[in-house]
Fold each of these.
Amino acid sequence: MRDLIESALKGLNADYVEIRIEERETTNIAFRGRELDEIGQSTGKGGNVRACVKGGWGFASFNSLDDLRAKAQQAVEQARMVGNERTELADASPVVAIVPPHIVSDPADVSLSEKHRILEEYLDLLWGGPEIQTSSLRYADGHRTMYYGNSQGTYTEQARIDVNFWASAVARNGGEVQQASISMGSLGDFGLVHRMHDTVAELPQKAVDFLKAPQVKGGEYTVILDPVLAGVFVHEAFGHLSEADHVYENPKLREVMVLGRRFGGEQLNIVDGASIPALRGSFQYDEEGVEAHRTDLIREGILVGRLHSRETAAKMGEDPSGNARAIGHQFPPIVRMTNTIIEPGDATLEDLLEGVKEGVYCRNWDGGMTSMEQFTFSAGESYMIRDGKIEGAVRPVMLSGNVFTTLENLDAVANDLDMNQGGGCGKGGQSPLPVSNGSPHIRLRNCLVGGR
Amino acid sequence: MLEEEVLALASQQADQAEVFSVSSTSIPVSYEGNRLKSVDTRESSGIALRIIKDGRIGFSSTTNTDDKEGLVARAVEMLPFGAKAHMEFPDAAEYTHVPTYDEGAAALQSASLVDIGGALIDKMHGDFPDVVWEGRVSQSVSTTRLLNSNGLVAEETSSSVGLGVEGTLVRDTYMLFVFGRSSSCKPDLDVDGVIEALTRKLRWAERVAAAPTGQVPVIFTPQAVAGLLLGPLMAGFNGRNIVQQSSPLIEKLGTRMLDPRITVWDDPTNPYVPGSRSFDDEGVPATRFPVVQEGVIANFFYDLQTAGQAGATTTGSAHRGLASLPGPGASVIIIEPGDTTFADMIAGHKNALVVESFLGAGQGNILGGDFSANVLLGYAVENGEVTGRVKDTMVAGNVYAILEALGALGSEPEWVGGSLQTPALCCNGVSVSSKG
């Protein structure tokens, strides 16, 4: 593969060219209700060429690797149509590396019948408890090998194994439908599928309880988030704004996002990094061949860094951070998060609850989105807090806020850091990208809660 | 051809076999920071195999066209664990051709797309120099082939041209986002319409106004109907949710659930509309049918498998990607217009909220018809006039409840994103909450 890529890269008339080729194998198993809905295996192969001429980009993606040289020339021609400025890419030292996948327990070593049998155990758990209307149970594993070379002498081969697991229980009462769900993933560890029993066993009761639970009145509340939901919060409420591709071409936003700006109190520290090992967002080289970093984004409440591709780093005069990622060969790499974390403080959950007269305690997640200025995210479970105590369940709430003011309202950080490895991130039509996020329990004052 | 070879191989090892393939090429050109950023070409092709043996379904897919033996072997390997088949593959059928291919669209080259996008971005940047514009214009041609062991052979090629543009206005930590889009199977994008809509949004958002809160009338523009209401509404009609009895509409066929002014069609036979087609993704002829007729629940969406499970007939509503089995869903949704103009909707209210786009739609309990979202772009109406953009505002409600208590039905239907046509809706029973 190296010869194929390097020979196609030689002597092209461009400022920069890269070629990426991928092979992937995936297995999916899905149950809908008690019945198996889908079991299937897919394989894929394809590649792309990305070229830059005078600051303009050309990109060509394909399934067939025939005539790779012609495809590279086509991408260069496309870039030439666009470019009329100067190519600016931050320096990245050329590397040659072959990186084996991170493996704790390889799903490829487990037979299809065994995977099927394990899922049936979960099905029994979903249907063994209180009466639910239906359930959904899904498992997927994927093995992806990426071959990458660029015109500056970098060549890498990397492989990764992703494992994903989802379960949900749906309860119904007349026209009312409620569901409780869980999403979990791992990098190279099939073992996660052995560790979900307790969590899945609780889902039917939760869904039934949600049906009976009252709805919160919409408005502003003090909100305490568990580590999983706080992870989603940091991803949505700040992480996306730290992606430099949103900022670098917008002069006004560059003024707003100037390094040194205060975003929160001194207890607030946020990092992102693919070099933090063995998490879903971990890797060794990004999709521009830049080595993975660990980037401080907020230190003691102050903006100190951001996430970059080689182009955004050069255009903002900062160092590349190894955050150019693509979900597959059909897409060019864009600036993405990896593992995003609010670092732990000293408080305990009890400290956070103390003095909260009326608030909402939210656990687990259902989704999240951001516009840069505003963000929303949904809790998997919610409970009222009254006089410092967590009380009965309410319908899971959606929370919303302003990126710039909400971090200021984050007034307490606990000491119990935990990671959320479920779900995936979507941006620019590329979804789901494996990422992780994490946090200890955190408290937000004056958080907008949607409701009746 | 490859599809025939795979079908022949698979037919030897299964009672029934079906081959589905898609090949497509597209040329997207993209703009960033008010200027052309990238010209792309994307080619993709792949093939999926579904087989039935001893009442069970096997499935596999690949984008590696050298791998036909592997494709068949993997589908066969799945059979012992496969889902129970509640259907048989259809026989060959006569299709009424629905035109979705236009030579002019197929012939578009990147240079013409750059011209279209450049003119739009330059115009918007000229009119609103403080707004930073990005966007994308693309052309694509896609061919679907479907073959099965009952002798069905179906092939269809479609073209499409699409345009999406987004403007971002930043004033310190105040941000405004406006979107516009247009798509068609022909090279007849409504660029003027996009400019007009973006201009209206930016003018109306010039000032910030306090949001009315509580249970106030909420006017959903066509874009907002697509963004917030369509998902939870259509989930209830999906045959999968009917089979699982997780839809609130079970046993409601023939029952009036919504305001009698509401009639909704699924019409994939609309010529040159992206989403239209002659046959569905299982080779069943596509037809126009009512989903809601004068407020009465008229039909659910079924593919072969869910129809078999429900004891119903497929509605030709199968949709599939390459790597997964088909599932039922809407194709081209048409909500019939009423008699209230958008201007009258606004003029008729002392206090109301107009909503345009959302953040976080699709989260929460959509199976039950609930929606909840942050208003990304919306405007306050006071004494019959738009007074400005609202900020830090959330809306929540239940789609069935608000369409039952419909205030007014708009008289000006618009295409949104190619496969939905709807007028504006003025709804009661939406809860609006806002920060201070």
Amino acid sequence: MGDEPDISGLLRLLGPGIAELLSGREIILENVELDLAELELTIPVGGAPICLPGLPFAGTQPAADSASGIDRSQWPTELLQESFTPVPEPYPARIREVTLGATKCEGGSRGKTVTVGGARSPPFTDPGVKQVHPPVIAMDVFDTPFPMPRALKSHLTEVIDDPAAWARMNVEKYGADMVTVHLLSTDPLINDASPKEAARTVEDVLQAVDVPVIIGGCGDPKKDAQTFIEIAEMADGERLLLNSVTSDMADAKTLEPVAKAADKHGHCILAFTGLDLNSAKELNRRLYQFFPADRILNDLTTVALGYGLEYSFTIHERARTAGLMGDTELQHPTISAATNAWSAREAWMDLGPKFGSPDFRGPIWETIGSLTLLLAGVDLFLMMHPLAVSTMRDVSSRLIAGGAAKAAEASWVNARI
Amino acid sequence: MAEKKKGIREISPIDVYKLLPRTNCGECGVPNCMAFATRVVNGEAVIDECTPILDSKHKDAYAQLAELLAPPVKAITFGTGKTATIGGKYVLQRHEFTYQFPPPIAIDVSDDMDEKEIKARVHDITGFTYGYIGRTLSLDVVAVRSVTGDAERFGSTVKLVAECTDLPLILCSHNPDVIKAGLDIAGNRRPLIYAATRNNWKEMADLAVRYGCPIVAAAPGDLTLLRSLVKTLESCGITEIVLDPGTFGDEGLAGTVYSFTAIRKAACKDGDPLFGLPILGTPIAVWTGQELSEDQNRWQEAYTASILMTRYADLLIMHSLEGWTVLPQLIWRFGLYTDPRKPVSVDPGMRTFGSPGPDAPVLITSNYALTFFTVESDIKSAKIDCYLIVVETGGLSVEAAVAGRYLNAEKIADALHESGIKEKVSHRHVILPGLAARLSGETEEASGWRIMVGPRDSSGIGKLLREHWPPREDS
């Protein structure tokens, strides 16, 4: 490009360079000869007047009214009164409501249940539409130790080897609405623990806490199926959330038995797909063959801030908008594994004194990831750090309460801070 | 209200084509005007790349195109030399059309600081950088606040700041005399004036006109007043106006998110010209709330800033300069403003580091740019001679690609095969990312290569290789 002898080539060569120069960066053109009768350049700079560095902007010197071209005699003497009437934007459809956990009289043993979903509009956009259910926070418990950043581990030392105690701490100390038991031990590449052993861990957790419980598998489509089926039967009627079923299970022909076991014993299912709405819809359609749609949640994948959070954000915005517009395959409540934030090295690595201690950087990473997806419509969050959990709870309750901003002059302008 | 303008997604290439010279001259770099029109409506080219239309004989067509393609949210530039452009948005949701003009982040300097403090703070603001996927993220603007209310003092503070940096400035005070003192010093830098309010709009409008500077219309918590102010300033002949609907922490957070959303919806969906202007978010406001510790204020400021960036802020003023408050904003801004249609990716294929011999390690990674640049910098800093096979994962990170099955045994086997690595090394051991450990067995079967599972984070590559390379042959 740019080597044609005609003027257009030269213009192309110069155009961006000149724009660059105008934006204050220095450029050097070498071996360029100009031999033109007339050269006219028009440089677009974002709709703003062009200023050359070092030269005064045309209108910047205190100028007589005539020089500014503005006739002050035409100015209003009083503030002109305008009104503002937001145009309401009703959505034709709503997100399904799913209740997790079952109390004694409902056939389970939970002290309370939680309900997610039910949204009628994108969150916090219309003060006239009240959010039906607040976002739910489930805190993680792992049945097997694994490498964890210090900022996460520091509050877990007492409980790290005891899933039941860990679950109890999540609920009693940090107020978790739910607990997720991640059965990493079942992974054939780790301990390959048997489904029976896994079921015993779940039983311990169910006895330790009375909140609804989420069962996290190891990601192996065959092993997870065995584990989920075992646990579904053991915890008959508890309305657990099985996290998760995948397209891999469909390929491994284990989707049907898992879905049928979950249905028979009254549990809910989380369908997980990787950042792709078409696969999410397809997996949901497959599940509808064996499982009631009103007990399915979707995980569309949560990527850490800095590692592609924007993809997760946009896919959730698209899914929620499509669901509210009437796409029944995307009307499932969604969950976010917000704990994934910690896979970003910015969350845990020592970056030098300028970037502060990971004791703050880690939890703010988890917090910002969660809040971003809360704005995109996610209903349920799997979280880990107590500070991130309390901030999520605090911010979401303020957003839901919908307090109006009181008219006032901005006090930050002259505040001593 | 005038007939509603077409949204960027409703403009067809034909609408643009009709107004082009239609000579298929190819000067824009594509073969014909129709192809160019398509690029323009997709946001891949700007009309000024059509050099013939800049000729005066096409003046009318050019003006019509500019009108047709003008974003519903006006773009406003302030500063000279180094400038900041804000607004310029076409849509509400980023999947509709890439967000333009990432919001500049301004850090405050106040006039109650002494000379040494001011110099140090400006130095810290301009020196704040973070290397991220081959780019340098940094802060953009300095907001000078008048805390003392003393015009002379404000003037000397502005002078000092202006001497220390060529970053664009925002001059902040409700007092027109104070603002005038700042403009007398730095008016030729075209700073953004904060702010015209219900009480001072006449004097502030006068300053904006005299010094030719853009101005913020501030009506915290009152959208009706905000529209009235814009209308009034416009009737004074001012066109470059920035909106401050107010940022409130605490109980006002819901109202803040709602105001930002209502303004942007009015502009993008309902074509409201008075709200078709950039929005200023001021997370710095949390510092004036209830008595909290510094770290609590930083914490609140950090998440408030990210919420506002997600909810349409086009410019942010912050107080904290702590790395852990600012870094997530810079990284989230980078992500939010990438083209959602194109994952940030690098070309797949083989990369060579140092001068690898026949027994050099072979590593696998994804073609997501962040992953690649991170692995690259870790390999370089550990000074490893090796081969890195970048697998086409649709621009997804290893973790997401494994979950979504964009990275699987077949793809790895194909990438190994196509790279010709077999001819380069005498061994058959390949190092898989720790986050793809799950694929080990299948990959061994599909590729015939032995798998060594690498660290979950590439910062551990050096250590792994020191301790475990070359692999023992019995394994």
Amino acid sequence: MIFNSFIFLFAFLPVTYAVFWSLRNADQRYVWLTLTGYVFYGYWDPRFCLLMAFSTLVSYFAGLAFLKYESPHARKIILIVPITVDLLLLGFFKYAGFFTRVAADTAHAFGVETHFPVLDIVLPVGISFYTFHTITYIVDSYRGVIKPTRKLFEFSAYVSLFSQLVAGPIVRFRQIEKDLENLGSADRTRWLYLGASWFVWGLVEKVVIADSLAHYVDAGMLDAHKLDTGAAWLVMLGYTFQLYFDFAGYSNMAIGLGYLFGLRIPINFNSPYRSLNPSDFWRRWHISLSSALRDYLYISMGGNRGSEAATYRNLMLTMLIGGLWHGANWTFLIWGAYHGALLVAYRFTAPAWDRIPKWAAVPFMFLLVVIGWVVFRAPDMSIAMDIYRAMFTWTPGDGLVDADKFAVLIVLGAVFAIWMPNCQEVHERFRPTIRWGTAAAFMMGACMAIMAGGRSSPFLYFQF
Amino acid sequence: MSSEASVVAAPSSGIRAWIRTLLVLGVFGFVCLVGGELFARLDDWWFADVPFLSTPSYNDLFMEDELGRRGKPHAHFEKWRMNNFGFRSPESMTQTPGPSTVRVALLGASETFGLYESPNHEYAAQLAKLVAPQDLEIVNTGLPGITIHTLSDYWNNWVVTFRPQVAVVYPSTHLYMTCEDDLPQQDAPKEAPKEAPKASPPPPKPRSFSIGDLRLIARAKNVVELPDRVVEWRNERKILAVTSQHSASWLYSKPPQICVDAFRADLEQLIDNVQRAGTRLVLATQATSAAVTPDSAGLRDLESFRAFSPRAPALVLRQFIAQANEAVRAVAKERQLPLVDVDASLSGQRDNFGDLVHFNDAGAAKMAKLLEAPLTGIGGELKVTSR
């Protein structure tokens, strides 16, 4: 089930909402949120629910063990075992096929023929996200940042919370711990209008903007190896904005849904295409992932506390793993390496880079990001290289169908993404007025019309 | 006294609040519909070049002129797009096939044109992909509602001018079920009016606005499916409206032989016409979701088609299709024409159909696969001959 579907908007959400607020205490609401989370998730494939339930139980019991055992040795074991289990699950479902292929290719390169079984494993939707949720819970419990909960359903409601289950934001337990504890006394009306407004804003970003761009981007990528120079730039600029509005739209809907159920989910995007440098970009793009990578990986590896060389190594490793987290493909690994290199380059040249005036730094950084999205979008390196070749050497061709319309949409996307206030900036001054409600109702109708036209598509980040 | 007043006042203020809430919700609902309608039009205009203020319909895809009824060049409606010659085929088509290309015309009604399949999944499109490496060009000349009888004129006046070297005939045999009655064309989609609009003057008369003109309503139909029971009930009412005007003896108790004979005669006539043009022929039998001895689901599909031929009870309709298919087999044998027995391969496999006779994506894929081998064989022979 996806947010931009009629079954979600007209059946799942109203029923979940009405029953949730008719329940009287927190414990009942935990159970309800868990149940609805599993219904939401099981809509793809009920078998996936078993996997999530297993991962939830492993982390929950790890939390209980942290409460019971205090010796450093025991706590280390409690840290390592469940994380290993979680990572093995993720590794098997997401990376087994990739690493088998890599091993076979490497052996072949050395003249050794292998007969590894071809693993065609179905990737459970959102496994990367909820694995991250459970791992951050275990690590925070180990570090004493949070006190693990004894309530199974409070924890399972956190893991299976449908609003952020399959594509984030990656919400840490500590970020919504208080709201979860106060769920029984939450005020339905306090966040209702704000939540509805965030949700509609996100839906517009996804359905009206991202899906419109997707129409042209997908058509261009069908024959990516035939793109001429202009078309290659249009397709990649289009994808740059499509990806942003798709994922930011999803995140804003998730935040809005959180408000509707009395939970404040942290923001995930902050106008990333206004970034001045790579470091700034990662403080604005997929904030929940980049901060989690920083806190749980980069800092754990030593962060910038060692030598410069060690810092560069930590940056590169963090971004490589971050790239691989997006998918089991060389393209993601190279995308991660590219951003790692950008971060290293920025760290190396920060004094000079920071002196670049804003009017030049923003487009320069934007260009670097677009270059990175090529390898992120391409299904394999050969197509990525075709697109790079078309972008950076003069390549004639037939161009794209309706390129003028596509260009107009890209300009509109740029205006909304870079110059217009973003969702949180707009909602800083939010007051539930009739005018606001009218605008939201109008745009809700617009989104439904487009969805009914069959042009709406699943969220890009679901594949991760 | 004051407490009494407050008791009286409380419900009325409560009612006022309710009325206010309902009013606000009503206004929001109306604004939501306005936004939906405007964006539906904007979406159609932007992505499908449909004029903002027009009222598009399925019949926009077709025209009628001195050459007869045929597809309208460059027309499009929802998922259907016609090419430069008014066929549901790629825009790149030329009047005459290239020197190394063997052109194959697929002749048929809406089953060939495509109804339930997603874009580019009708059997013609799927077949085109399969046989493209052999330099076979597939042209979907399907025309919804066309019978084998009218197909002859359509061939002579229009299709033959594109010089296809091969023609595949996939007949809609069920259209002959009503040959004794003067009923209009039957297998056009439900939303399509019964008569095709004229492409030439007189211009369409201005008409008053109806709720069906709203694009939002058309889009909502894509999403909202009426429950089966409601659809069946509406169908039963339609049938009853016709049958109640006749005595019980008016209903067929067995397939009318005169209609089977008419179908066969028209088929033979079409074959003569096609062969006269030097075009090779492949015949196909018609498959239905209902087997000859239908299960309950098959019976429901047959019943749903009774709206088009109320005179024929479900089982009689199926028997008629079976007899018409026998006629196709017999003609193919007598004239030594290649036959693709789609009926034998797909009939009764409900997963392959959107209704009684129209394929879904899966069915269209199987149909394409069935045609692939005979067509590549003929294509190979033609290339050898031309050398």
Amino acid sequence: MPGSGHLLRAALFITAYVLIDWLSYLQPVLQLGITPWNPQTGVALAFLFWEGRRGAFAVAAAALLSEIVVRDVPAGSIAAITTSIWIAIAYAALAEVLRRKRTSFLPSPGDAARFVGASLVATLLVGAGFIAIMLAMGALPGEVALGGVARYWVGDFNGVLTLTPLLIWAPQWRAGLAALRAHWREALLQVAVLGATIWIIFGLLSDQALRFFYPLFVPMIWIALRWGIVGAVVGALVIQIGLALMVTEAGMAAPLLDLQFLMLTLNLTALLLGAAVSERQRAQEQLRERDAALARAMRFATAGEMASALTHELNQPITALVSYLRAAEMLAAQPDARLPETLDKAGREALRASEVLRRLRDFYSTGAAARAPLSLARMCEIVGAALHERLRRARVQLVCSLDAGLPRVAADPTQLEIVLHNLVSNAIDAITLSADASGRIDITAAQRGDDVLLSVVDSGPGVATEIAPRIFEPFVTDKPGGMGLGLAISRSLLRAQGGDLEYEPVAATGGARFTLRLKVAQADEQ
Amino acid sequence: MNSEAVVFVVDDDAAIRDALSLLISLHGLRAQIFASAESFLDTCRSEWRGCVLVDLQMPGMSGLDLQAELKARGIPLPVIVLTAHGDVATARAALKNGAVDFLEKPVDDAVLIDVLRNAIELDAERSAAAQARAAAAERLARLTSRERDVLRLLAQGNQLREIAERLEISPRTVEVYKARMMEKLGCRTLADVVRAGSELARE
């Protein structure tokens, strides 16, 4: 039993179908009421897509009801019933074809082309079948058959192209509206331009609308480029509705059928262009997601190093604290005058431990992806302090020579710290491996227009020449036990903020030079 | 416990040096503090008794470096390494190089004092054994070559007559050598002679 939900949806669909057919009943010909734009077909196909084969009954009923209400059964009741059943069967079959590709409905140009192809064949078959039935019933003279098929086909095809994708995307409308709200000014401008173009072409120049149709491509391409396939479909629908309004309200005399062929071209162009744009947008989205995942991985790697440093930093005061307290316990039992002093020292060690934790909290509470104006000197100080222990053990000197007049840069503090930390850490590893006694890392910076170039130069052996060109690719490393992710992540973090990361060998010393390009913070950010 | 034994606390963290030395002294042990491995090595002398409690991670020489340097200089002080990381690889390296123990910070005082006492005892035993060896060697050095021969043959279980035959001297002369040798070594019984003979064999 299909259930009441299906019946309710079927009733709603039938009402909508008849209403839309009635509204778009413009310039009918051949005393059969064949109109040049059939949006109700698009609605029927979407309904079949959602409801499956069982929806075919409702479609047949709707088509029949429309024949009666809108067209007054021009070819007799048998013809009306036969054509209604034919329409229902043919579109149910098309919906089956589309349903099989439900998961990938239209996001790529390939899918869009398959949708267009399937719809074209199906609408052509429906049109041919309809005319054939009418010919068989003797409702049409044979010589108009070909023209009839063409009219029927273009009307249905345009209806399907403008309405079906939009209705199938219904579950994503809410997300689409949210995206629209974020850029409402641009959307409003596009609608205004489109409306004006429609009014000028179909209103002011209505008798020459065919000649002046082509400027419509400009706003359509703009919309498709900006909003992808969704924009293309909505834009096409707006033009169709505008065209219909001009015909009914302004009494436009232009040949609607010829215009529908032009509309078909416009629809197809916009749909395929929009699909290409959507696919690119999605690819960029995936790239950003991958970068975000890499950044998370790097945060974890840094966190591991942090945890190790933190253990040491925290254990120092705790060791002293525990020892003072044990001593105080013994002093209290004797009793001994050194007790208050020892307890005071214990208290100070507890505060020292909490200071370590406060520094840790500051490190992590700097906020994600906030592009705050940053002082590079301060950033170098922080990284130098964090790596102090390792620099000392490796006997490497870290020299930050930054000009006091250097402007602040716009960057996420945590991410920039991760990148710098990673570069200095790599430099220490490189120097340690080369067993160079006088290890040295230099950080310098210079302003170049709107950018600040920050260089990290080390006295290590440099990057092996055979991997140097690929050093920023993931999993490429010359470090024993290295993951080869650090530089890849660092570069993607910087690029996401409009910056970049480059490598070049230092000719004089054979060492490595990594240059970060960062954006100068704008005046209002300062 | 040996009264001259000292726990040498080597740590770059002033608070830890202070707290550990206080705790150690309250447990009745003597403590002496050093801020770095280098300053300890500068003043360290081979006759110092006790043990070294050293931090693993320090600026300059690490705890492991200090341990290796003491070994190279032939200073037999037992070393106990303290670390903030429960790092298995480092612990293994320290123990392989002859560290007595490996403690993780923060360390429980009962465990710490126990380990320190064991180390001091070990050092005392080692030093006593070394002293006994030195004394025996000194006494053996006073024997003439004939007295040494008699000692060796006696310790191997030979009778006086057999020794006389082997050395081609009269049994009476062997008696005289034996008496002089026993007097020089301070031996009263044959068992003492056998023990002294084993010292000789070791030389």
